[in-house]
């Protein structure tokens, strides 16, 4: 009862202070530093605009294992989004369309296992699995990317695979201004523009930084699908498809800091708007080679119009109190997603030669989703005797997620006639409310040979869900210990050891009390509001060596023991399809045998082969692997102006389902990046190349098994600097015309899947061409 009242009280308090919301993150220095000193220490933006040096991975002083990459590490390849940045760092994979880098998968695990932070704070996203699409954040807003391999007690524990912290530029860090403008040319001749500006400096008694970015987005792809009765079996049909993603992203950020009394106030805001359309046109044929009207089976058009808004505001005040340092954070973030999905298809009867028109059908789905979070944090740090530091605090979150779906279906039997208007919509509305109160306690010590950190975090969660008139509630609590040790073997060498318990909360669509018919083949699915979270004990062991002044090489071993895995489980209840099939069979028998009873010989018996499934906590799994990364100049070889970059991750896992052992779904066996940059300082010229490859991924769920194979990605750039204020950079990406190939094994029931009795086997190939960017930057 006390916990509930506290959560409600905090939520109400936050509602009145939303303008100070939290995305601001920790302050870089103590609040006693004067504003004039801050201005003197701020980084000059010419280092960002006109680089004269090659930038390598940072060596952090965090005790928890953390890799840090400044924007300049990525910038010469002109990444458009955070997704483009993350594809270059260790252990991050994607299972997306070609040239799409949205749901980051740290250590190859599902996006839900990777925590995405902005300035150290969680942010809501569109995914039903709680994931946040990193391609919604423009690269130009970012100061650095941090990979936090194992969490500390003062961070949320939703990080089984680790956390990716996107640190935005703030007023304290930068001084100066610059303009950025350019264009992108795509394989089909389309040209998109990009423009942005950033300015930061002293304003009155504080410091202010502001920036904006407008980015044209475009991705034209060609797809081909061939379908068969089974692998190596008879051909059934083929489909040719064009798939074009077209839109514009608008973003702006603002940051203000100033000293007030003994403390420092930090305010910041981030806004990102996405206008996007996804257009697919598909033609299906009954002949693999003759793709003409005489063999046409269907003509399908699908258009999805997407309007998304991300807002994150922040307020943080750190001040001296009771011999220590106290920090108060208040926060508000909101994600709005409105989309209109219209699919219209003309089908043709294959019994005629050529196939004759059958009917035209249309479906329109209107989705309106709002996900908001209000957060409040209070923490206190103080130094104890013996060089030990104590930190304790409490983090609270009040989350609301509302989704409204409206669906309309129309049809027509007249060839060439327009479809009737979409007028009658079936409406469904769901609401998820989540309240968290998470206290923590942490001790740490630095100095000498060993640095260490140990803490406890206790996360409590209350969940209320509603779908139309159905309601359900659940609550759970998890204790999350963590400990980190760093052994400073020498000035250049260090060994790190981390042990931490983490958590993954259930997918939103798994906890809604909603029944979906034929969600998995002939099987239905019903949500389970009583799901508990998965938990994992994790171990990381790493070694890092400094190479000269700038280089770093590191290797890390990791292991995760995951408990209470959430998998699809059979409720034992027959599916709607099984009941309908039985009723049809019974009706046919009674027509042939009037007056028959269950005692009549041959009377049909109800023996369903498809069922209602649900999500349940079943079984355990484990994940392990090795991660290597290197970034260094080739000074030892007499090439100080040449930098090389490489990382390689070998990943594996094991989990049992109803068909036996498999890896975690869609986990690549490996992913690697290699590249170089060479700078010709006397002529103000630089050039470089980057090559990336990730291994095949496999997914096995009820009634479907998918293997996905990706081609390699090659990028190159050439840059010319003009003095200290201007640079021009040409970048080419996807120069190998990367392909994505998928192989689908489809079944009707679990029994068919076990017996390999196929419903369909499909091969799909997707390809996109190269993209060229020409970007100019000017510092003022």
Keywords:
39 strands; disordered N terminus; single chain; five-stranded mixed beta sheet; 8 helices; 780 residues; mainly beta
Task: Characterize the structure shown.
The protein has a 22-stranded antiparallel β-barrel. Strand 15 (324-349) and strand 16 form a beta hairpin. The protein is built from eight helices and 39 strands. With 780 residues, the chain is mainly beta. The chain is globular, with a radius of gyration of 28 Å.
Q: Please bin the fraction of helical residues.
A: under 10%
Radius of gyration: 28 Å
State the total count of DSSP E strands.
Answer: 39
Unreliable residue runs: 1-41
- The average pLDDT score comes to 90
Mass-distribution shape: globular
Strand content: over 45%
Distance between the termini: 58 Å
Structural class of the secondary structure composition?
mainly beta
Q: Specify the biggest β-sheet.
A: 22 strands, antiparallel, barrel
Number of DSSP helices? 8
């Amino acid at each position: 009862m006390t916990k509930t009242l506290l959560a409600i009280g905090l939520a109400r308090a936050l509602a009145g202070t939303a303008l100070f919301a939290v995305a601001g993150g920790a302050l870089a220095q103590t609040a006693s530093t004067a504003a004039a000193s801050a201005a003197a220490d701020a980084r000059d933006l010419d280092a960002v605009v006109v680089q004269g040096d090659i930038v390598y991975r940072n060596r952090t002083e965090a005790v928890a294992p953390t890799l840090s990459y400044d924007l300049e590490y990525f910038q010469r390849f002109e990444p458009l989004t955070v997704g483009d940045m993350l594809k270059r760092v260790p252990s991050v994979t994607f299972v997306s369309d070609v040239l799409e880098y949205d749901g980051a998968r740290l250590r190859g695990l599902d996006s839900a296992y990777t925590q995405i932070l902005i300035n150290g704070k969680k942010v809501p996203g569109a995914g039903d699995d709680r994931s946040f699409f990193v391609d919604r954040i423009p690269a130009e807003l970012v100061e650095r990317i941090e990979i936090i391999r194992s969490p500390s007690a003062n961070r949320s524990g939703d990080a089984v695979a680790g956390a990716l912290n996107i640190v935005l530029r703030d007023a304290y860090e930068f001084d100066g201004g610059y303009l950025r403008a350019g264009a992108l040319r795509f394989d089909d001749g389309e040209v998109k523009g990009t423009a942005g500006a950033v300015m930061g400096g002293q304003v009155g008694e504080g410091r202010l930084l502001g920036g904006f970015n407008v980015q044209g987005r475009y991705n034209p792809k060609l797809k081909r699908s061939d379908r068969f009765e089974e692998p190596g079996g008879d051909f059934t049909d083929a489909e040719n498809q064009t798939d074009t993603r077209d839109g514009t992203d608008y973003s702006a950020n603002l940051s203000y800091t100033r000293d007030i009394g003994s403390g420092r106030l930090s305010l910041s805001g981030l806004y990102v708007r996405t206008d996007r359309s996804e257009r697919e046109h598909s033609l299906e044929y009954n002949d693999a080679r003759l793709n003409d009207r005489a063999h046409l089976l269907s003509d399908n058009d699908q258009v999805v119009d997407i309007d998304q808004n991300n807002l994150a505001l922040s307020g943080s005040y750190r001040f001296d109190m009771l011999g220590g340092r106290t920090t108060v954070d208040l926060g508000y973030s909101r994600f709005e997603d409105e989309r209109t999905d219209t699919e219209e298809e003309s089908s043709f009867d294959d019994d005629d030669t050529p196939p004759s028109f059958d009917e035209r059908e249309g479906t329109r789905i209107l989705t309106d989703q709002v996900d908001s979070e209000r957060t409040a944090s209070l923490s206190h740090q103080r130094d104890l005797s013996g060089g030990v530091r104590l930190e304790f605090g409490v983090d609270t979150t009040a989350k609301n997620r509302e989704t409204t779906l409206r669906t309309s279906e129309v049809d027509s039997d007249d060839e060439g006639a327009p479809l009737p208007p979409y007028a009658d919509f079936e409406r469904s509305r769901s609401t998820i409310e989540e309240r968290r109160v998470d206290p923590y306690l942490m001790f740490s010590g630095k100095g000498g040979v060993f640095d260490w950190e140990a803490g406890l975090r206790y996360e409590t969660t209350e969940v209320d869900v509603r779908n139309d008139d159905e309601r359900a509630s659940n609550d759970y609590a998890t204790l999350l210990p963590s400990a980190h040790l760093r052994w400073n073997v020498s000035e250049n060498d260090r060994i790190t050891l981390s042990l931490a318990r983490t958590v993954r909360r259930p997918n939103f669509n798994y906890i809604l009390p909603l029944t979906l018919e034929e969600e998995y083949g002939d099987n239905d699915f019903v949500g389970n509001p009583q799901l508990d979270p998965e938990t994992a004990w994790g171990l990381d062991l790493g070694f890092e060596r400094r190479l000269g002044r700038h280089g770093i090489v590191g290797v890390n071993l990791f292991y995760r023991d995951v408990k209470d895995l959430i998998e699809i489980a059979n409720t034992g209840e027959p599916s709607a399809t099984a009941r309908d099939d039985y009723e049809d069979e019974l009706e046919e028998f009674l027509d042939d045998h009037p007056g028959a009873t269950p005692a009549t010989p041959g009377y049909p018996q109800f023996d369903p082969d498809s069922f209602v499934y649900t999500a349940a906590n079943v079984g355990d799994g484990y994940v392990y692997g090795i991660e290597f990364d290197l970034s260094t100049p080739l000074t030892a070889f007499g090439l100080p102006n040449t930098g090389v970059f490489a990382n390689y991750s070998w990943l594996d896992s094991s989990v049992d389902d109803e068909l036996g052992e498999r890896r975690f779904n869609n986990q690549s066996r490996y992913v690697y990046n290699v590249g170089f940059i060479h700078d010709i300082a006397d002529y103000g010229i630089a050039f470089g190349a980057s090559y990336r490859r990730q291994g095949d991924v496999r997914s096995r769920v009820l009634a479907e098994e998918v293997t996905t194979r990706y081609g390699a990605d090659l990028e190159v750039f050439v840059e010319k600097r003009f003095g200290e204020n201007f640079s021009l950079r040409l970048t080419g990406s996807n120069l190998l015309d990367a392909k994505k190939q998928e192989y689908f094994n489809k079944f009707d029931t679990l029994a068919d899947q076990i017996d390999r009795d196929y419903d369909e086997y499909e091969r799909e190939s997707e390809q996109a061409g190269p993209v060229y960017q020409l970007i100019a930057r000017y510092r003022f």
